[in-house]
């Protein structure tokens, strides 16, 4: 009876062993793939935010010497954008409002570009990042 049990139960045993091996391998590959994806996505967001900050700081410096009301509104909008970027949680990947805050920064950037009469077109490609005016 034991010989027949071994034969009959072999399929179930091999199925269980195969499942365990596949699960372990899939978990290992999934973690590695997740890290690669996270690094790439994080680099894209960092590049985008860095571009916005450089843009805002440059225009802030250019407009500080202007004293008219229109320029002061632009400067306040730029300061708001700079403040939003400086508060952005770069080092906390578990921050639950990351996408929401990123959307607000993008909106503020578009508002600032509109105030400055500049076309904003931020593109991230595999070859280069560019901000065209």
TrEMBL record:
InterPro entries in the cross-refs: Essential_protein_Yae1_N, LTO1_adapter
Domain Essential protein Yae1 N-terminal intervals: 18-56
Entry superkingdom: Eukaryota
Ranges that cross the membrane: none
Family the UniProt entry places it in: Belongs to the LTO1 family.
Protein name: ORAV1 protein
Organism: Neopipo cinnamomea
């Amino acid at each position: 009876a034991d010989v027949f049990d071994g034969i009959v139960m072999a399929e179930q045993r091999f199925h269980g062993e195969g499942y365990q091996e596949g699960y372990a391998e899939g978990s290992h590959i999934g973690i590695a793939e997740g890290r690669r994806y996270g690094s790439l996505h994080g680099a894209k967001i960092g590049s985008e935010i860095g571009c916005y900050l450089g843009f805002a700081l440059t225009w802030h410096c250019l407009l500080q010497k202007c004293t008219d009301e229109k320029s002061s509104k632009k400067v306040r909008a730029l300061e708001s954008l700079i403040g939003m970027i400086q508060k952005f949680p770069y080092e906390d990947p578990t921050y639950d409002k990351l996408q929401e805050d990123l959307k607000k920064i993008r909106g503020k950037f578009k508002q600032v570009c509109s105030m400055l009469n500049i076309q904003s077109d931020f593109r991230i490609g595999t070859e280069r990042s560019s901000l065209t005016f």
